[in-house]
Amino acid sequence: MAHITREPTPDTSNRPGPAVQAERAHAAPEGRGCLFALSQPPLMLFLTVIGTLLLIAGVHDLFLL
To answer: Highest taxon of the source (predicted)?
Structure first.
């Protein structure tokens, strides 16, 4: 996007040829899985808050009603 960002055009002399790019395109993408998603701090904070609210509601229903 040199015309929009006004950056110089990239040098394409060091890029791999079409055969190498086609080989990389057929490789299976590396999946990160659910444990990667659960390791994110905002998600863990959200799940902690929701779990705490459910725990408080359960304790309230069992012992205070």
So the answer is: Bacteria
53 closest CA partner among 64, 41, 45: 45
| Residue-wise pLDDT tens digits, 11-61 | 666 666 666 555 555 665 666 677 777 778 888 899 999 999 999 999 999
**For residue 17, which phi and psi values (nearest 5 degrees)?**
-75, 175
Distance CA 53, CA 46 (A): 11
Strand segments (E) across 1-65: none
- Phi and psi torsions of 7, nearest 5°: -90, 155
Is 54 part of a structural domain of the chain?
Answer: yes
CB 30 within 8 A of CB 36: no
